[in-house]
Amino acid sequence: MQDDDELCLCFHVTRRKVVQFIRVQKPKRASQLSECFGAGTGCGWCRPFLKKLMDEANPEAVNLPGPEDYSQQRAEYRKHKSN
Ligand code: FES
User: Fold this and answer.
1) How far is the CA of 23 from the centre of ligand 1 (A)?
2) Does the structure show a pLDDT above 80 at 82?
3) What digits encode the pLDDT tens for the residues 21-51?
4) What are phi and psi of 32, to 5 degrees?
5) If both were cysteines, with which of 2, 18, 23, 27 could 32 make a disulfide (CB 3.0 to 4.6 Å apart)?
6) Ligand 1 mean position, distance from CA 41 (Å)
7) CA 21 to chain centroid
8) What residues have CB less than 8 Å from 49, skipping those under 6 apart?
9) How far apart are CA 68 and CA 58, in angstroms?
């Protein structure tokens, strides 16, 4: 996943915005990332990835799935979640 790819697909929040938010706002809990354009407050798929970025000293270096895989995995997640 590149910087301009959407990390929160529900609210179209890019990885770059999240990383910037972490760097500037220094949130203490992952739930505070909701203040970053609502990231993580929709389907919930991106929450573990948001937490992963937050837990790392260097969030730019965290390896996340490519945008197509990420989107496809989310579709699966949502399908199972609604059943
Ligand atoms: S992808 Fe972020 S809440 Fe759905």
Assistant:
1) 21
2) no
3) 999 999 999 899 999 999 999 999 999 999 9
4) -70, -15
5) 27
6) 6
7) 12
8) 7, 64
9) 24
